[in-house]
Design brief:
The complex is a heterodimer of chains A (about 130) and B (about 400). Helices cover about 20% and strands about 30% of the residues of chain A. Chain A is of the alpha/beta class. The chains are: A alpha/beta (about 130), B alpha/beta (about 400).
Chain lengths: ~130, ~400
């Protein structure tokens, strides 16, 4: 079992399947707050939903209102199970805190593949890749 | 962890001061950790953004309600513009539904002890920090004004992080709170002639687009009024994310002068104007007051409109803060403006009100207003002087 270590952004544990992108995400305007679908035109994840997944992306971009989009997803039951970043930006960090989504950054995200089953322990800042 | 907390701050984090304060402290300490802060510092003033129900939505409102259960501000805290004039919304064509929800947002903030000013220019109506004071402000134009023109110290906060600072009276010490991060990085020599607020907006557009978040040192601006500086701040923050600039003989901060020098010519300014002017813009909406108009600007606009009549098919919004509107009522400016068929709108602005679909072309003196009119509302835009805007309105 492969282990990756990073830094805790917000506490919590989660286990699930990854959805990965090498492009930054703007939650405000880029993600449907009711369904979790990425709607930014031309984005790698356009048309796919982040709901119930371990979401892996480099960092956030765009308006600070993005924090509230993560909160809306969480209230609608469409939030990611956990967030893994290369470097978490303030908009995503604040979004995770107010929505209580476990989050870790300072991870070499290229080492995580799309659709892998992983276990996230944000308290320790550790990710276990269970299956390839 | 390198972030050191006092006993009181640890208690806030552990929940001893209630749930909202705990959540707020989690936000402050997490941002502190991300940016490598060593400690938290007290702030004496907060400005919160994310007030328009149009931007916030039901989820944002739900979060505010949750925080309002036991959250109370510890320092002077004021609010950004809402999506409507809180008193006269009906005659501006805002729906009952929107008005009800917007009022719920304002009520949630009021419950927490926030002074519900609803303006992007808090420094004009009583939230005025002094030089060197540590504050936590959202609203990019006000952040830029506070850091640069006043010499106070703030990072660019978002809505939730500004609220968190209000509820804890703290922010993490990083970024623009630290002297070493406030030095100028690139010098601009302005050769262009700057006559009005629209020219200062165009200058902000040019520098913002070239600078992209670095700290400019600007020379060659011979004089600048407070109104012109607020126009410049709004524009340079919108187009470049600039949170701090230095202007020779105008702003108070001390800095070394960068060696890298760029020139800004009359041609650069004209080019910016072309970029903000859409071809075949059919102007049916004229708005002045982005950032919110000062009493001086309103006095001037009232005199331009006095005895005139706004043309059929055109709508005019002069946007300002409520205390400034009250003063305008007292001075008779409100009557002059409204008798001409224009609206003096308080608490709101053309960037955050739900206006999509209502108009096709905006004329304004504000480069920032052009950005939001295009991006959010799909309006075509033209940037002109205040005098030209009013002339267009009555012709």
């Amino acid at each position: 079992m492969k282990e990756l270590t990073g830094r805790k952004i917000f506490k919590g544990k989660a286990q699930g399947e990854t959805i990965t992108t090498t492009e930054d995400i703007s939650f405000y305007g880029g993600c449907d707050p009711e369904t979790g679908e990425i709607v930014e035109k031309g984005h790698q994840l356009e048309g796919q939903s982040v709901a119930g997944k371990i979401l892996v992306f480099p960092t956030g971009k765009g308006s600070t209102v993005g924090s509230y989009v993560l909160y809306a997803l969480s209230k609608a039951g469409k939030a990611p199970l956990a967030i893994i970043n290369k470097s978490t930006d303030p908009v995503v960090a604040v979004g995770c805190i107010i929505s209580e989504i476990p989050a870790i950054d300072q991870i070499d995200i290229e080492k995580i593949e799309d659709g892998q089953k992983v276990e996230v322990d944000a308290d320790k800042g550790v990710i276990h890749i269970i299956e390839d | 962890m390198t972030l050191n907390l006092t006993k009181e701050e640890q208690e806030m984090l552990s929940g001893k001061h209630g749930k909202a304060t705990q959540k707020a402290m989690e936000i402050i300490t997490t941002l502190g950790n991300i940016y490598g802060a060593k400690r938290l510092i007290p702030v004496s003033s907060v400005q919160i953004a994310g007030v328009s129900y149009h931007n916030l939505g039901e989820a944002g409102l739900e979060y505010l309600d949750e925080m309002a259960v036991d959250g109370q501000t510890r320092v002077l805290t004021t609010l950004n513009p809402a999506g409507m004039d809180l008193m006269e919304w009906k005659k501006h064509g805002i729906s009952e539904d929107f008005a009800k929800n917007q009022q719920r947002v304002v009520d949630a903030f009021a419950k927490m002890g926030v002074v519900t000013t609803c303006t992007c220019t808090p420094y004009l109506i009583g939230n005025l920090p002094h030089y060197g004071e540590h504050i936590a402000w959202a609203e990019s134009s006000a952040v830029c004004f506070a850091n640069s023109v006043i010499g106070a110290r703030t990072n660019r906060e978002g809505g939730p992080s500004a609220l968190a600072a209000a509820l804890t009276g703290r922010t993490a010490e990083y970024g623009l709170h630290l002297e070493e991060n406030r030095d100028a990085e690139v010098k601009y020599v302005v050769e262009a002639e700057l006559r009005n607020t629209d020219d200062f907006g165009l200058l902000g557009y040019v520098i913002g687009n070239r600078t992209r978040k670095s700290i400019p040192y600007i020379s060659g601006v011979l004089k600048a009024s407070t109104n012109e500086l607020k126009s410049f701040c709004a524009s340079v923050a919108t187009y470049g994310g600039v949170a701090l600039f230095h202007m020779e003989k105008v702003t108070p901060n001390v800095t070394t002068i960068p060696e890298t020098t760029e020139t800004i010519t009359q041609e650069d300014l004209e080019h910016a104007r072309e970029k903000l002017d859409d071809e075949k813009a059919d102007i049916d909406f004229i708005s002045v007051g982005c950032p919110h108009a000062s009493i001086d600007e309103i006095r001037h606009i009232a005199s331009l409109l006095d005895g005139k009549q706004v043309a059929d098919g055109k709508t005019v919004w002069i946007t300002t803060a409520k205390p400034t509107k009250d003063l305008a009522i007292k001075m008779g400016y409100y009557d002059q403006i409204e008798k001409a068929g224009a609206f003096l709108v308080s608490d709101a602005c053309c960037a955050v009100a739900p206006l999509k679909g209502r108009f096709t072309g905006l004329m304004t003196d504000s480069a920032k207003a052009c950005f939001y009119a295009r991006g959010k509302n799909d309006f075509k835009t033209e940037i002109r002087t205040v005098e030209e805007c009013i002339r267009e309105a009555v012709s």
